[in-house]
Amino acid sequence: MTEKTPPDDELNLNKPVAPPPELVDHLDDEQREPEWLTEATERPPETPHIDHYDDEDDPDRWQESEDTAELAANEDESAPEHPWSQAEHDAAEVVQLKIRRQDDPFSTPYWQLFDIPSHERDNVLSLLRTLREHPITGSGERVDPVAFEHQCMEEVCGSCAMLINGRPRMACSALIADLEQPIVLEPLPKFPLVRDLMVDRSRLFEHLKRVQAWIHVDGAWDIHQPGLRIAQQQWARDYLYSRCMHCGCCMAACPQYDEHLDFVGPATLAQVRLMNAHPNGRATRSTRLHAIMGDGGLSDCGNAQNCVKVCPKEIPLTTAIGELGRATTVQLIKDFFGSSEP
Amino acid sequence: MSASLHNRHFLYRRIHSLLGLVPLGIFMVFHLWQNSQARLGAAHYNALVAKMAEINYLLVFEATLVVVPLLLHAAYGLVILGSGTAEPLRYSYRRNWLYWLQRMSGIAMIAFVALHLGLTRIAAIIDPSIYNDMYSHMQHSLSQPVTFGVYMVGLWLSVFHLANGLATAAITWGLTTNAAAQRRFGLLCIPFGLVLGALGTQGLIGFVL
Ligand code: SF4
Ligand code: SF4
Ligand code: FES
Question: pTM here?
Fold first, then answer.
């Protein structure tokens, strides 16, 4: 008897896997007009400029004050001196960034505009890195560098999520050519703000701990047994969920998720779906199901399905939620009527 | 042990969902079907009302199948409403609009059902003779354009709330698991809502024509 091998693309996991169409609600790429930005305020005049570098011994402090003095000297001239060299300017298109800034978690946010020379195939992060070299606003004022997070530059680490033109997405995969200008950057909502575009996402780890999103190993020693087999077809499905990089975009878009609320959010639920499908994880299925049947669990989802629309990795979150709905219904029946399973 | 039974949160949500579907949803279908018979005239309609009033243990049924579920569903609905920010303008996806509309129609329904009960059951407590000729009582109140308008809006919002609630309950209970199934079932709920709304509209028009 010959065993049928699955088609090649199901086996090749290095290739990006497109989620099976029945799992994902189609992502639409329409860019929305950010109307709510009309409320935006320019930097309030009453906010004093805070100098964060008060350390007398800091060599940068001297550097900065010299720059500031130079700038102040130039202030009288009618045209503000442009920080970018002429050559750089000629080579590139100038892109306007409008960034929502906030000096610390407790101060008032304000907007700043920056004109940055941009090259073909630049993305929002590469522009932010350029800006970091010369943090000078469009009107020529030297300001504190914009704080932001990034690591991989290839949409796998999950650290650069922010609101770009009003939508939560990864700055490293947001190509300038595809964006409407001025490009409006805001910190990812629903997470405590640290500074400028930097937020504290340590809650994500707390959520994972809460639902026990891990597999218990069968032993820390060699048990002389191969790992349990997983069917290729199931593997292909599970793989979709394993690509979650915990960026928080889905939580930012979820109407039921907020830093003041209990809800663990769609990505965490999807990890429960993933761990419960694993042959070793199956043994502790009901523990995870019970965790999401508690406060802040599955039933806090309101089925708005924004999460699946914004997830940069196209993770079939709503399918995970539907499958968990069924699993918890079965679990409820088992809990009520008793069951032989643990 | 069985966290789902000891932690109320999950049970409350599922009971909320179940109450909306089983007693309340079924009652709404029945109620709209029954009132669509208004078109058959005063004699037929009043005979129907009289027959209903004769049902054995009517009050018990009304209390356990309609009033208590309605109060619980509405009260817990308001609790759920306390959490969540829809932002339908920022994320203008279809499901997000429906999420927002479900909440808004829920609030509207509380007002509408209160008004509806006030104009019928409570009015009948004050003036029992209304029961003898429910048809002309309804005809009288619906002949005022404002009342008719409010009933029409209330009817369609309620029908929406039920049809959309059916679609989301299918996800919540895990009847539809993957995205394609959820979309298919959601599409099926549209004709259900339209037929139910048409039935209700027929009833309202039946009183005034
Ligand atoms: S599910 Fe998607 S949007 Fe959510 S954290 Fe994971 S990768 Fe980010
Ligand atoms: S489907 Fe649930 S988890 Fe996803 S955005 Fe909506 S409420 Fe949030
Ligand atoms: S920098 Fe790693 S995801 Fe953008």
Answer: 0.82
